[in-house]
Amino acid sequence: GENVEQHPSTLSVQEGDSAVIKCTYSDSASNYFPWYKQELGKRPQLIIDIRSNVGEKKDQRIAVTLNKTAKHFSLHITETQPEDSAVYFCAAGVNNQGGKLIFGQGTELSVKP
Amino acid sequence: DGGITQSPKYLFRKEGQNVTLSCEQNLNHDAMYWYRQDPGQGLRLIYYSQIVNDFQKGDIAEGYSVSREKKESFPLTVTSAQKNPTAFYLCASSARTGAGETQYFGPGTRLLVL
Fold first, then answer.
1. What is the pLDDT of residues A58-99, one digit of tens each?
2. Hey, are the CB atoms on A93 and B99 less than 8 Å from each other?
3. Facing residue for B43 by CB, picked from A45, A95, A103
4. Residue B64 contacts residue B74 (beta carbons within 8 Å)
């Protein structure tokens, strides 16, 4: 069935360093790839998304890249800050499945001051 | 996402009991979703609804039921058939169905078994 693999499961970086989280999806029909940030006990919040007709998208310190051939997409956070510490989830969606998203397992990012 | 509310924040279930989790949105969104989140895991889809009076099973629908009688409401019932219901339940909505529509999440309900 459809599957999204996310790595690493935990990531610890020093403040100011970059962080990269990688996801691989199985359904080649997937065409929408959002990233969510979830702080402890809170709701997931969308931080950036990319559609299959675009290879890269950037929003200030956050960027996402997509390689459709490899069925692989990544989240890049530059100049990390302690408030970036949270769990990050990637997801993949297919247009003909009613908006259904398949989520990765999550990456717990810790940014040390 | 402030337009999506879930209640209660915490819910306790006794053995053999059915419990209902509330989800309401005032965003005039067509689509609504229920996800289950277990510690250290991603979100898994339980049910989703694209329009009033219609809903589809997600990946882990067994032991759950839903209704969509009103556009703004999508309650989830956890039945006694769900043998491991302890989890964090998240409701979401999107303006329309189809990929590319941002899903906005409610604050969640944490269900615990007594």
1. 999 999 999 999 999 999 999 999 999 999 999 998 766 667
2. yes
3. A103
4. no
